[in-house]
Task: inverse folding
């Protein structure tokens, strides 16, 4: 499967779910798009996992330890090197 953007994959998954829920497709076509949906689902999960790893790297402190903190939109810490990037 060619590289696809997360949003495109998610939109296609929504379309597939709608088509399958209608229930008016022949069995072979239903199976075909179900398989496509499974592939897209795995692709989306992989992209989300990769994004999560990147975020974890960005929130490591100076000692390499990850600190869990609530995300606060607009709040910046003065000594946070990421906020100045």
Result:
């Amino acid at each position: 499967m060619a590289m696809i953007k997360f949003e495109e994959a998610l939109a296609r998954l929504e379309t597939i779910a709608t088509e399958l829920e209608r229930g008016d497709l022949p069995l072979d076509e239903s199976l075909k798009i179900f398989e496509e949906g499974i592939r897209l689902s795995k692709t989306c999960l992989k992209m989300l996992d990769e994004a999560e790893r990147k975020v974890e790297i960005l929130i490591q402190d100076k000692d390499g330890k990850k600190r869990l903190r609530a995300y606060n939109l607009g709040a910046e810490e003065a000594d946070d090197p990421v906020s100045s990037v």
User: Anything to note?
Assistant: The chain is about 60% helix and 0% strand.
